[in-house]
Write a structure and sequence with these properties.
By secondary structure, the protein is an alpha/beta fold. It has helices at 3-21, 25-58, 62-111, 114-119, 122-164, 166-172, 176-213, 215-220, 224-277, 282-323, 384-391, 414-419, 435-440, 448-457, 461-466, 484-498, 514-528, 563-567, 573-584, and strands spanning 345-353, 359-368, 373-378, 399-404, 407-408, 421-425, 433-434, 474-475, 502-506, 532-536, 548-553, 556-561. Helix content is 65%, strand content 11%. The protein is elongated.
Length: 585
């Protein structure tokens, strides 16, 4: 990307950010007015003191001096009120804007296809939603307004000094070319160092998220020391990057301070001679001293604020990269509404690949009748689980069609489609909270009685009732305090409470002990009753009762029929799988 394209991209990012601020334009305008008032009062304050100095020197009337003192006090009070007002308004407005940005990012992330989460590290997403969004806060609450404030303050100071004494003013401005060069290099270096810091922070968050999730594996294989060393390397990378960023500021600020001291000494030297000559008054020299001291502060602030603005823009680019990601399932502009889902599922010549034309499913066609049960079997990688994901439209197919009750699922509302499908997976995910809310999942239409009824039906009530707090028992992250079987029973209760027309079971009985498996098999019988049920299982003994068994091999449907029919086929795929499992047992 050339420099012109980069500038255009940053310009677009800036205007897109302003779209978030537009609803609060009135608040921001009021804050700007208060900021300008503070700037004007700050410029007026030294003039009052300069006049008082001249009145003392000339033996002025005490009443005039007293009036100037009251005026100065009034200016100080007004500055305090205006500063408080603009700080409060900007803080409130900034937080509202950041809240909206964070909500929009999270809402968009939820709308993305599962493919996005397959290829994007969780830590990276967390960094975007938290750190990068928070980086915008300072831009909205301080930088934009203060950029205007400091620009106006510099212009005001320069104009006032030129009016008071243009020769002294030009003498004070002599260092501006050097300041401009230093500021240019500071902005360039600070932007580079900040990008490095953000990259290192994202890498650290990604590493941390992944390894906290896999902590059991780390401890099982006693890899704590290795992982400590890896984490230390990433933490040191972030430390050194942050240190370099701080050093840039540590060098720039003192250099600006030295230049301001040189300017003050120059003004005092030249101005002192003018005072002795009677060209200017002592009060005017005081005003010049005050102004030249103030003159360098907004210049330094502008340089740092430009750096912060660049940092915010870098974070905004990353945020908009997420918002612009279009790997999501697009809903039809005129979706079809099914008043009642019967559950007839049909695949017609379906081709599907996660990447380009690396086909997972190849020309797959089948029909599952309403209320019947179907099972998919086959070797690992044959495409069984992909079929389940496609029914719920978590991914879109490249060729063919998938219909439910004769309607293409691409023409259905995504929410309606997924509401009609209850999916139970091998790896059950429980949210932090309690058992009751893990079954209800924030659906207030599901009463406590419905929850208990569902739990009793799927045999989950037995172990839940034995818990100290019953259905209010606290659930830790991922439900780690419950056994695999208990988590599975809770997921069955969750599915039954939502009363789906179609039931999808992906290895729901895998890795379950024999005693719990009997409970689960009984729960499955209740779950499957009156519903179109689709199962994937490696243990053929768990799917022998299915009305139809479909055998997948290398992405193709090679056999279908019931258990008895498939066993009768000599040299059939299903028969071979069945015989292998018998030998292993």
């Amino acid at each position: 990307m050339n420099k012109t394209d980069m500038k255009e991209k940053k310009r677009n990012v800036f205007w897109r950010l302003q779209a978030f601020a537009l609803p609060y334009a009135g608040y921001l305008a009021l804050a700007l007015l208060l900021v300008l008032s503070v700037t004007a009062l700050d410029l007026y304050r030294p003039i009052i003191l300069g006049n008082v100095i001249d009145l003392f020197k000339e033996g002025g009337d005490f009443n005039d001096i007293k009036m100037k003192a009251f005026t100065y006090l009034a200016v100080i009070v007004l500055i305090f009120v205006c500063n408080f007002g603009q700080t409060w308004i900007l803080a409130l407005t900034g937080q509202k804007i950041i809240y909206n940005v964070r909500q929009k990012v999270f809402e968009h992330v939820q709308s993305l296809s599962l493919r996005f989460f397959d290829i994007t590290p969780v830590g990276k997403i967390v960094t975007r939603v938290t750190n990068d969004v928070e980086a915008l806060n300072e831009m909205f609450t301080q930088v934009l307004i203060n950029l205007i404030k400091n620009t106006i303050k510099i212009i005001g100071l320069a104009a006032t000094m030129l009016i008071l004494d243009w020769r002294l003013a030009l003498l004070g401005f002599a260092l501006i070319p050097l300041i401009a060069v230093l500021t240019y290099f500071f902005r360039s270096i600070s932007r580079t160092t900040y990008k490095i810091v953000r990259t290192k922070l994202t890498a650290l968050n990604t590493y941390l998220s992944e390894h906290l999730s896999g902590m059991k594996v780390i401890q099982v294989f006693a890899k704590e020391e290795t992982k400590n060393a890896e984490f230390k390397d990433r933490a040191e990378d972030l430390y050194h990057a942050s240190f370099r960023e701080m050093m840039v500021f540590a060098i720039f600020r003192p250099m600006m301070y030295i230049l301001s001291i040189i300017a003050v000494v120059t003004i005092l030297s030249a101005g002192g001679i003018d005072v002795l000559k009677g060209t200017i008054t002592v009060g005017t020299l005081y005003i010049f001293h005050n102004y030249i001291t103030q003159f360098f502060e907004p210049i330094q602030a502008l340089a740092e604020q430009f750096g912060t603005l660049q940092q915010s823009m870098a974070s905004a680019e990353k945020i908009f990269a997420i918002l612009d990601d279009d790997t999501r399932i697009h809903e039809s502009a005129f979706p079809v509404e099914l008043s009642k889902v019967k559950g007839r599922i049909e695949f017609k010549n379906v081709w599907f690949a996660y990447n380009n034309e690396d086909w997972i499913l190849k020309d797959v066609s089948f029909v599952i009748e309403p209320g019947s049960s179907a099972a998919f079997v086959g070797a690992t990688g044959a495409g069984k689980s992909s079929i389940l994901n496609l029914i719920g439209r978590y991914y879109d197919i490249q060729k063919g069609s998938i219909t439910i009750d004769g309607v293409d699922i691409k023409d259905l509302k995504i929410a309606d489609l997924r509401r009609a499908i209850g999916q139970v997976q091998q790896d059950v995910f429980l949210f932090t909270g309690d058992i009751k809310n893990n079954i209800r999942l924030k659906n207030d239409s599901i009463s406590d009685e419905d929850i208990v009824r569902a739990a009793k039906t799927v045999n989950a009530d037995g172990f839940i009732s034995r818990l100290e707090h019953g259905y209010d028992e606290h659930v830790t992250e991922r439900g780690s305090t419950f056994s695999a079987g208990e988590r599975q029973l809770i997921s069955f209760a969750r599915t039954l409470a939502y009363d789906p027309a179609i039931l999808v079971l992906d290895e729901a009985t895998a890795n379950i002990d024999t005693e719990t498996e009997s409970l689960i098999q009984d729960a499955l019988a209740h779950l499957m009753k009156g519903r179109t049920s689709i199962m994937v299982a490696h243990r053929l003994s768990t799917i022998q009762h299915a009305d139809k068994i479909m055998v997948m091999h290398d992405g193709r449907l090679v056999e279908e029929g019931n258990h008895k029919e498939l066993i009768a086929k000599e040299n059939g795929y299903y028969r071979k799988l069945y015989e292998i499992q018998l030998e292993n047992q």
